[in-house]
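Internal QA ticket QA-208
Title: Verify multi-chain structure generation after dependency bump
Assignee: T.L.

Test input:
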Amino acid sequence: MLGTLYFREKGQITVAASAIRPTLEHLRGKGFDALMSVHGVDYHPDEPRLGVHYELLDMGALDRLTVKVRVPLADPHVPSVTPDWPTANHQEREIYDMFGVLFDGHPDLRRILMPEDYEGHPQRRDFPIGGEPVMFTIDESDGRSYVK
Amino acid sequence: MEESITMAPLEKLGTNELDQELLTLNMGPHHPATHGVLRLLVTLDGEIVRDLKPIIGYVHTGIEKTAEDKSYWKVIPVVERMDYLAYYFNAMAFCGATETLLEVEVPPRAQYLRVIHMELNRIMSHLVWLGTSALDLGAMSMFWYCFREREIILDLFEQSSGQRMHTRYFQVGGVAEDIPPGWAEKCREFTAVMPERVDQYNDLLANNEIVLQRLRGVCPLAESELLKLGVTGPLLRAAGNPWDLRKAMPYSSYDHFDFKIPVGTEGDNWDRFAVRVQEMKESVKIIDQALDGLPGGAWITDDRKVALPPRHELATSMEALIHHFKLVTEGFRVPPGEVYFPIESPRGELACFVRSDGSSKPARVHMRDPSFVNLQATAPMTEGSYIADLIATLAMLDPVLGGIDR
Amino acid sequence: MAVKREKLVAPDGSDLSSASEDFRIRQLRSRDMLRGDLEGADLEQYMQERVLTTTMDKAVAWARSNALFPATFGLACCAIEMMSIVAARVDVARFGFEAFRASPRQADLLILSGRVSIKMAPVVRRIYDQMLEPKWAIAMGACSSSMGVFNNYAIVPADKFMPVDVHVPGCPPRPEALMHGILKLRKMIQEDPDMGWREGYGARGTEEVVPSDEPQDNAINVFRGGNTAA
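Actual output:
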């Protein structure tokens, strides 16, 4: 356990990456039996840079809890919780695709939203947003176009 | 190509001991029945589905990345276009998260107006679902009936906000404008007519032999499996679990209204169908109660640091002008923090995670989309059923690819 | 049973018997024409009165424009508004375009309704190539025409990889706006069916783009390397 925070009437705890599976099992024993969301955050320029958040829900006691894990870019390995919580399958793949966090023990870690051979992890803060210059009619008469 | 397809062990079918191969079929992304650009790699044994792998990302728009680049109120139109049938819900999740971070109070009239618009959107989303699902099953005329009602709802949206879809009506702190005079009466005309129209749809489909055979007992999935897969919304309610965030953890004055949660018993396709049809009727009840109790007052928060001041103040008050200028050019600053705001969308739990670093642009916006998580349930549901059942199950699952791919 | 016969009288009181005589005269002239008995000036007058002459191109263009088969190609939010034009309020069946074909081989109009993501662009191009000439494309909405609301890494404007005939602005465009766009396309087909402007895109003919080694200066060759999104 690395830290706790009670923010806007909801609890958030931060744990080390290696401890995430036992933590979630322990919380499941406490009644938080539904993992609602697994999502990634890029804390650039704060270190450790990549974060993974697990949103837990206790349907019986109507309570929510956030578990946060932070890993540096140099060693972005987090144990995968997919064997215990099958809902995290696609969600962890999305975090891998968008941030580059490697989940150890995930049955099928591939890109899910970007094309399979895409290079780069788009959701990181230092990835350029990209885009095309918008072409107006005057651009066409000037000879610029999307094609040539 | 996909290498990681799990081959299910083959059962001997009947007395025929021919060596049977499994065929991998690619459905989509361009397919008339996949509700958007969803690609399915289906491993078939004859016509029986043995395994299913959905491949998504064909309408990935980088909404979350775009949202980091814009000030908070400009994120609302971007985020609205995520789950494109439930646009008010996307906006509500984001506005709710931002309001939680800002700790602004949403006035009661705005809360009621939000509820009315969200329930109208829920009915509209279910109507589109019903029309397109019936189309998938082959009952084509439902499409035209459902879209007839949808046009009435879109007229209401156009009257209140100026735009049929993606209306940018919900703003941080309330709603953008008050409803015009006469809107409430038009809305009541609609709610007076809608329950009998839902009965008409039931008459058309619910006793139809073909619909019954295609939906009853087809592709059930146990509630425990659904909970493990994180499935929420009508799918979970069809399996018997009455989990609905509007009742369990109410937001935006939902606790002021009296409505029931339709719950199924077996969790098969028929229950998913019936639950959604009944939800339309319950939404009509909520709208009626909200219109009856619509309080007067402001429709957006008075906090000038968050909401634009009314235009007539700009001529007289210097602070109003300064606030207007700051809000339009830079936007309001949100105190640093991280917030997760869940609501009940027509497809399940839709939540918005906003991380703010103190500036006027969000540092991370993540929408937890229900269809993205519900899609993982397709494979367990359809194992061992026919392709036609797969199509029917996809229809009953109600995936909206905009939300899945974001 | 007694039957009362009455002479038909026109609303303004005049006798209609002259109308029946005119009809009889026209009948006899048609009979003469069919027998080959009409000659010279009579025949000319008959042709002017009765027969619609046009060039073959115009007739074919008229037929093509009034019988477009759109392909079911809904990508995102604009697809819902495209479904609205099939619905009863803005009824595309009035114009004959309600036969949305699922197979691109049978369709001749591709309505790109929605945002084209970078993963989907090769698929769209392949479907466009599978359509048979003559084929048209409408880029519906802001996202497919230009980048729309989302100017970022994940979207491709349709002009980059396929020729588009009509761009319909809006986010999403109202069904009436899309209808206006389709009718504009219909007018374009009727009046100006020459599609030589597509040379710029390298998009004549129905052949699939062959992967070649030299860099193409036309639209993106999405089949370079012979690989599409796996």
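Spot checks passed. Residues 98 and 122 of chain A are 5 Å apart (CA to CA).
Status: verified.
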